[in-house]
Amino acid sequence: MNTDKTSPTDLGKPAAAPVDAPPAADAATTAVDPRLLVREQGFGGYVGELKRKIRAGDLGALPVIIGLVIICIVFQSLNSNFLTAGNLSDISVAMVGTGMIAVGIVFVLLLGEIDLSVGSVSGLAGGAFAVLSVTHGMSQWLALVLSILTGAVAGAIHGYIFARIGVPAFAVTLAGLLFWSGLMLKVLGDNGTINTSETGVFYDLSNYFFSDVAVAYGAAAVAVAVYFLSAFFDGRRREAAGVPSRPLGEIVLRTVLLAVVAFAAAYMFNQNKGLPLAVVIFVLVLVLTDFVLRRTSYGRMIFALGGSVEASRRAGINIVLVRTSVFAISGTFAAIGGLFLASKISAANQGAGSGELLMNAIAAAVIGGTSLFGGRGRTWNALLGVLVIVSIQYGLALEGVAAAVQQMITGGVLLLTVIIDAVTRKTQKSAGRA
């Protein structure tokens, strides 16, 4: 059989010259992912990087920081007491309870879900502690542990029903909101209010201050040193691995900025009662949870789930386990936040966990920069967001503005933040980064 494909008419003709691909247009450029660009040296490199981020919709914490500056300027101009050491110290302590709840909300939002039960769970934890320690005379330390476990179990139940059975998280946690609120009322009994002791570890959660000035300045120095060392050695590891890393100049600049903020805060606290224990615990929680999310495989699984459930399943991630654990974390931090709130007033009552607490916790996470669509956020967002909310509340309170108006203003800030989040997401999709 003849397998020669050459036509008889082609015999004797010279072989055709190979055809080269046409040259690329002079103006053609190769697209490069901005995230892979190594920053240029000098101030121009920072300006260029900032422009790239803005065009791609990656605003980070910049809007929140600008908002905080504006809030401080406006309220200080209205009332000279706003930026006093006493008021700022009160804001710092008041934000911890709601901030702890917001930390758990951040974990849930990273999945692209919501937890509506955190307010009721926080109230239940405070009530459980009061009954165990006051009514039954249990050790405060043991009562604290059991109260926190109560929140963890409640969150795990929500997560398991959502992950295993497939009931929407909104419906599950809405039912939890009603159930745990009713259980709290049952636990507190007919009286409805149980006053806790004004001594001991529970009272100290929100009412203890390190009066020695060396403690605040020492904590600031440790924070700055730990940040510099971790950033420096992380940069060396990245260089050794051949991936882009921050230059030493940027690390030094960031360290100096952190030092200014840390020592200014230490000075402010020392002008009042000293460094609050509540703030120390809150900062340590933020550092720990940020490490878990950014430096562990578990944290990467949470971000992966928030990006795509199907892709995560194909990658071998245990969807049920991760979802259940995230809601358990949310319940745990709701309980911790409830304990701080109860400690601040030295009592557990029927109004705990109700009112605007749930909305403030969710708003703090979202205003701080955590996306409602999942896959983007950090626990430090809870700090920024709750600072905005509590600062607005205290500023309006100094002006004698009614609570109803405060809620309206907070709602407006939340709506503006959600709009920015939605627009940012669309911009990132257009830039191919979402």
Level-2 CATH architecture of the domain at 62-208 and 297-423: Orthogonal Bundle
| Main sheet: strands, sense, barrel | 2 strands, antiparallel
Rg, Cα atoms, Å: 27 Å
Give the number of helices.
16
Determine the N-to-C terminus distance: 58 Å
Supply the helix-strand structural class.
mainly alpha
Low-confidence parts: 5-9, 24-36
Q: Given the C-alpha coordinates, what overall shape results?
A: globular
Number of strands: 4
Q: What fraction strand?
A: under 5%
Helix content: 55-70%
- CATH top level label of the domain at 62-208 and 297-423: Mainly Alpha
The CATH topology assignment of the domain at 62-208 and 297-423 is ABC transporter involved in vitamin B12 uptake, BtuC
Order of helices and strands: HHHHHHEHEHHEHHHHEHHH
Overall pLDDT metric: 84
Strand numbers in spatial order across the main sheet: 1-4
